[in-house]
Amino acid sequence: MRKRDKKRERRELVNAFAMLLQIGLAMMTCMAMSFGIGFYLDRLLGTKCWIMIFLLIGILASLRSLFILTGKFQSSGSSHNEIDGRPEYGSEMKGESDAGSKKDAR
User: Taking the complete model, does pTM exceed 0.90, yes or no?
Assistant: First the structure.
């Protein structure tokens, strides 16, 4: 193997590990925060249902963050905006929205 091949392989390995770590932290943060809110509401109100409701919300939020984090790497070949990952609309839609804002600015 060449030296640059080893560097490239090492860089890919570090990038994969960083992505795995980012996904894990994002999922744990969503679930932990929602669990904490549910636990606090249960203690405050003296109930037992809020912890389960907020834990379910946290699981759904963590799945959403998982899809957001992995979605931008799977669809890198499609026409997505590089800044926020949302698809860009056609030029006719973009032109109409710009024209409307120019009229309002006068």
Answer: no
